[in-house]
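Take a careful look at the sequence and tokenised backbone pasted below. I need to know what the token row says about the fold.
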Amino acid sequence: MSVVLESGSHRPTRRPPPAAAGKSKNHDPAKVLRIALVNNMPDAALVATERQFIRLATETPQLPLDIQLFHIPAVPRGAEAQVPLAQRYRSIQEMFDLEFDGLIVTGNEPRAARLDEEPYWRDMTDVIEWAMGNTTASLWSCLAAHAAVLHLDGIERRRLPQKTSGILSCIVTDPVGLGLPARLSVCHSRMNELRRCDLLDHGYDIVSETQSGQVDTFTKMLGSRFLLLQGHPEYDPESLMREYRRDAGRYLAGTRNHYPEVPESYFDTATTLRMENYRTLAERSRDLRLFDKFPAVGLRSGLETGLASSARALFGHWLSSFAVPAAQD
């Protein structure tokens, strides 16, 4: 598979026209599939997320892709993100004037108590409306998925008692019909969730969920075929470790109230023990100087293979939706 990345200059801001409900296109398999990636991830994860989705595209040999990078200017950014944004990204306002077959939208670390109070909320809703009328299929990751269902159906996400972090084993509801394996191993890292009953009440189909009923992936036909993810199948094996280490550092610095829980089904046994001992030390002597003694890390055996195969299967499932005429749904 070839992946083409384009960049370009910025143009004056404009708002997209209202989406035409039910508009869809059937993809010509001989044509390069044009995908817009709207990358909203925090500065420290911006480039890694770009790399992760490009890697997924190259590892899923179904269609030739042209992936173009966009950002929402209203997402708060620091100096760390300015160089890659200037070099490779364009504003979503330019995206609204171009033609794409598909769209990928990533999440961001929450800053406000409610999603609709985030500084970029209006731009995010414009992206959602544009996707419905101007793409065949769209993929929404984590907070972006929460934003989509809130805007489209008023479904509120629910705060969890503690952060869900780790590798969740997820059961696929119809593996044969969806062309997916019976189980998926997916990275999750979130403080909020969407409830199964709320999604079903508003016409969403559950693609995968944990044995306890936590929703992983779900879908709905909205002109564009929306595939929405509460997890991060694109994450590389070290992503959760970087987040866990970051949260531990925030605790030691006094900007986080509680020490983070060890990610579920992630570290090997020896590392898990080291992490628990380090937590005891950190909670007893809360001092940022301890961050230099953060333990060495070993990941659970087989983790990388399981994550990679699940990610390729899910991304391939999403790409296959471009070949399915909307009239068949």
